[in-house]
Design a protein that fits this description.
The complex is a heterodimer of chains A (295) and B (531). Chain A is of the alpha/beta class. Chain A folds into 2 domains: 27 residues, no CATH class; 264 residues, LarA, N-terminal domain (Rossmann fold). Chain B is elongated, with a radius of gyration of 27 Å. Chain B is mostly helical. Chain B has 23 helices and 8 strands. The chains are: A alpha/beta (295), B mainly alpha (531). Chains A and B meet through helix 5 of A and helix 8, helix 9 and helix 21 of B.
């Protein structure tokens, strides 16, 4: 065998070895959900995005991107009420690496924004990666048609409308009304108005909001998850170190995977059940291709 | 005749004006910095108050405690003792603002100085006597008239909110003109300043402030001349100072310009009539004297000093008034029974001691990150006018915050760590069963529970079956308050979707600082006194 042929064979062989049979079944090169476990929030986030085909699959050169974490409460990262700052920072870096022109990280918190931005560690982390972290600006609030089944229109921060791509980065927590607060409920932080009234029909409201915002990518932060006293917790004993990040395009599937962090079956959650019935996404974990790895 | 104004005193005057701007700027800067600093503990932004010997003295007398933070006030006393009321003319931001408007009113000829024969400058001494005597009997009224308290309160409760409103409207116009980038930059800048913009008594306190400024239309530096009790105190101390005005009678042409233009009605001319204790050392007289006849030699012999001309009868009368006022101030029910609306900030002393120390300055109202702290009107009785209380419909007590306890200049609110603060109660939440959405309609809600910051939550659930108007039964989770863990922070009331009269609300009962304002016996016994 000549040297050139040998190298060729190696190349083809290694390519073949890398191709998973499921890739052919799906007709695409990446799984529905990447579920990565590991010690470093930053590394598992990177790995999850890589498994999905890299950030350039979601963010194009020159894009304006909004990364929407949960910065809802005046709590530290250890208390697991807000998204892990390292996960947010890593996503910002990946966006810039993919050629994003501008990355904004923002939320409309329940406690004063200046406090939550600081204590959550997200402001510092996101800024260090070059993102803009603006405080919610009431002049940006506009009543916008949602065209939902229950929500017809609502006051939305136009930041989320006047952008090219949205990436949702929720944290997985318990919640006494929707049982869990995951990715779909995270959109409560992109709206204004008397949003507390939405609680009277919360499940339908968050389905409508999730359909309206259409994130290109959802990254579920399960590095620390909140088992009790959600959605803001308080004691460290309420927190479980789960060391997981899940990412994917199907935001309903991501919430279903998030539910599995708590050993809750997705169909037990009313909003997931309804979302599935409305055809917004898949909640049957068996039907999803999940690339699960520990690094 | 050729004018020969003193170059030296004109230069001193210029330096004095610069100094006034500097100190006013410092005052304003510290006011702006009195906000959440991005960490849990704030630097001593209240330092201005600690240079105020009047606050130090009255707090000392009325509460019978020495507050070590007032040490800088000794400096003011020493300086005044040797140099006279330079603090009034060169440093005091309230004096600077009065003088600024006096200057404007004079330049625009809205005010024309007249020759004055009256002796009204003594009013402030009577006011001082009244305040001191009443404080002797634990009635602390100094906050209403103390210049720093007056100015700070006026700025926090009315000037800044008005400014904030105007800025917000202006930004609205900017956005209307589609200047989006400029609008965004301005919004981020002002949001970071954290200006509390909602105050119950903004108009009243603002009107009083504007009124005091308009008094300068009648007399220059009206407040400083006739009202300021701190000025009076410094006037008494300055009796023996070494900076004495001297008129060179050889040069003097008896034009009386100095007396006419004197900011403080200290009557520089004739020399023996000059009132040392009224002079604020602005050096206007020596700077405008057309013949350069006025000087302030450092070692002039105090041959004939015009002493403060108080009538003994009036001194006795004012003292008696100060004593007589006390029972009248205490007729109110506030003393005998706690008001449900009077929710004091965490760390506030027991009510009686609190009123002996609070000087109504508004520092706590400025620093509160949620705008919850508001000046009381009648809730705390007449003594408690403008003292701080939380109004949960406007804000709430932020869980990881003890800033108000850190900025209180007199210790009326004891300094607390966040841990200490979260281990005491300022009140208790109550569910209004007739208005609560699950209890009344059987609809889901739980916004109060979601926001409850303590862990485990002080709001728990019970399942209720609510009969609907059509007779059917709806089942829902309804909130109940666990009195043992509720801190009374009020976020539940603030966030309740029943906006007009929240279906969960906080009253002062159960507050740790009070022995009597309690409901449950066992809770009261299990709590340790934090002080």
């Amino acid at each position: 065998m000549r040297r050139r042929d040998f190298l060729k064979d190696i190349a083809i062989g290694s390519l073949l070895l890398n191709i998973h049979p499921k890739m052919f079944a799906q007709g695409t090169g990446s799984p529905d959900v990447a579920l990565i476990q590991g010690e470093s929030p930053s590394l598992i986030t990177k790995e999850a995005i890589k498994a999905l085909g890299g950030m350039q699959r979601f963010v194009s050169k020159g894009d304006k991107v909004i990364v929407k974490p949960n910065i809802g409460w005046d709590r530290t990262p250890e208390q697991a009420a807000c998204t892990n700052p390292e996960v947010v920072k890593t996503l910002v870096e990946l966006c810039f690496d993919a050629g994003a022109k501008e990355v904004k990280v923002m939320d409309n918190p329940c406690n004063p924004a200046r406090r939550t931005y600081v204590r959550s560690g997200i402001q510092k982390a996101a800024k260090s990666a070059g993102a803009k972290v603006p405080l919610p600006n009431k002049h940006h609030l506009k009543k916008i048609p949602i065209h939902g089944d229950s929500l017809k229109e609502w006051e939305i921060y136009t930041d989320f409308v006047e952008t090219d791509k949205i990436i949702n980065v929720p944290i997985a927590k318990t919640h006494s009304l929707s049982r869990l607060t995951l990715g779909m409920k995270n959109w409560m932080g992109a709206i204004g108005g008397n949003r507390n009234q939405l609680h009277q029909n919360l499940d339908l409201a968050i389905i409508d909001l999730a359909a309206f915002f259409k994130p290109v990518l959802t990254v579920m932060d399960g590095y620390r998850i909140l088992l009790r006293n959600g959605p803001q917790g308080g004691r460290l004993s309420d927190v479980k170190l789960h060391k997981t990040v899940a990412a994917g395009v199907d935001y309903v599937a991501l919430d279903a995977v998030g539910a599995s962090f708590f050993d809750i079956k997705p169909e037990e959650l009313r909003f997931l059940q309804i979302a599935k019935e409305k055809g917004r996404g898949e909640i049957d974990l068996e039907k999803l291709t999940i690339e699960k790895r520990t690094i | 005749m050729k004018k020969e104004r003193s170059k030296k005193y004109r230069a001193i005057q210029a330096i004095r004006i610069f100094t006034q701007f500097f100190f006013f700027g410092l005052f304003f800067y510290l006011l702006l910095m009195t906000r959440y600093p991005g960490e849990d503990y704030i630097k001593r932004v209240e330092i201005f108050f600690h240079f105020d010997p009047l606050l130090a003295l009255v707090t000392f007398i009325s509460s019978r405690t020495v507050y070590i933070f007032f040490l800088p006030a000794v400096l003011t006393i020493v300086v005044t003792f040797f140099l006279g009321r330079v603090a009034c003319g060169w440093v005091c931001p309230m004096g600077s603002i009065q003088q600024f408007f006096s200057f404007v009113f004079k330049k625009t000829q809205l005010h024309r100085p007249k020759k004055l024969e009256d002796n009204h400058t003594v009013w402030k001494y009577y006011l001082l006597i009244f305040i001191l005597v009443s404080s002797l009997f634990t009635l602390d009224l100094v906050g209403i008239f103390d210049p720093f308290s007056f100015l700070y309160r006026s700025f926090v409760v009315s000037v800044m909110p008005a400014l904030s409103y105007s800025v917000s409207s202006f930004i609205g116009v900017i956005y209307g003109l589609n200047l989006l980038t400029i609008g965004d930059v301005l919004v981020q800048f002002f949001e970071n300043l954290d200006i509390n913009a909602i105050f119950l008594q903004g108009l009243l306190i603002g009107m009083i402030f504007v009124g005091v400024i308009l008094l300068n239309l009648s007399r220059e530096r009206f407040w400083c001349r006739y009202i300021c009790p701190l000025g009076a105190l410094l006037g008494v101390i300055s009796r023996w100072n070494v900076l004495k005005l001297k008129i060179d009678t050889e040069k003097c042409i008896d034009c009386n310009l100095c007396s006419l233009q004197c900011q403080m009605q200290a009557d520089p001319y004739p020399n023996e009539k000059w009132k040392s204790s009224e002079c604020d050392y602005c050096f206007t007289c020596s700077a405008i004297c057309p013949t350069n006849a006025i000087s302030f030699p450092g070692k002039a012999a105090p041959e004939s000093i015009e002493s403060i001309d108080l009538s003994r009868r009036k001194v006795v009368l004012t003292s008696l008034l100060g004593i007589l006022a006390i029972p009248f101030f205490r007729i109110s029910p506030a003393r005998s029974r706690a008001s449900e609306k009077l929710i004091r900030p965490p760390g506030a002393l027991p009510e009686e001691k609190f009123l002996q120390k609070c000087v109504k300055c508004g520092e706590c109202m400025k620093v509160c990150p949620t705008n919850a702290l508001q000046p009381a009107m009648t809730e705390a009785g007449p003594e408690g006018l403008w003292t701080p209380m939380l109004v949960m419909k406007i804000g709430y007590c932020e869980y990881y915050c003890s800033l108000c306890t850190q900025v209180c200049p007199t210790g009326a609110i004891q300094e607390l760590t966040i841990w200490q603060k979260n281990n005491l109660k300022i009140g208790t939440a109550w569910v209004d069963q007739t208005r609560c959405i699950p209890l009344k309609f059987g609809n889901p809600c739980i916004v109060c529970e979601e926001h409850c910051p303590v862990s485990p939550k002080a709001i728990k659930f019970i399942t209720v079956n609510v009969q609907q108007p059509d007779g059917s039964i709806k089942s829902a989770q309804a909130p109940v308050v666990d009195m043992a863990t509720c801190t009374g922070c009020g976020i539940c009331e603030n966030k309740c979707p029943v906006v007009d009269a929240p279906a969960i609300y906080v009253t002062s009962v159960g507050e740790t600082r009070s022995e009597r304002n309690q409901v449950l016996l066992d809770i009261f016994q299990s709590e340790e006194d934090p002080y």
